[in-house]
Design a protein that fits this description.
Shape: globular
CATH superfamily: VC0467-like
CATH architecture: 3-Layer(aba) Sandwich
Largest sheet: 10 strands, mixed
Number of domains: 1
Number of strands: 10
Structural class: alpha+beta
CATH topology: VC0467-like
Number of helices: 5
Order of helices and strands: EEEEHEEEEHEHEHH
Distance between the termini: 44 Å
Strand content: 35-45%
CATH class: Alpha Beta
Length: about 190
Amino acid sequence: MVPVRPDAEVEPGSLLVAAPSLTDSNFRRTVVYVIDHRGEGSLGVVLNRPSEVAVHDVLPSWGPHATRPQAVYIGGPVHPKTALCLAALRTGEDHRSIEGVVNVRGPIALIDLDSDPDALATKVRGLRVFAGYSGWGEGQLANEIERGDWIVVPGLPDDVLAPPNTDLWGRVLRRQGMPTALLATFPLDVRRN
């Protein structure tokens, strides 16, 4: 019998939810949306780390189209000067018929920031810009999952556009049912418990 890889459930559109024991400052209590996962490695963006930088300050033509709070989100520690954009397409829109769009999963697509934002505006119900990304080399993510750093769960399209005042980490954990839902009650600082 072939053993199941620890990252067997990971696919584009999955969420990697940081386990309470993961204390790395880049990923503590984060929710990472997986954009790509294959043998050579994985790529995703942190969904719950808004920055103080407005999208219109770095990408003026995209600023008015970004989902509120229209901030650039910190996608991860890799290439922080690289911008990625995820959007939720409107119901009925087909990613194959829209130039500058690459489907990730369901209505979520990666947007080419060299595209015309005004041409895309009517085709998306929301978009978010990320500075940098989270990346793993071959076998690295599987090792981290096996070690217990990440909980792999299915993502929902609205996770990508969750408002910054939402406890996305807790919300995603709570919807998983027991016993995983109990992790959402884990205190931010166990020393103060």
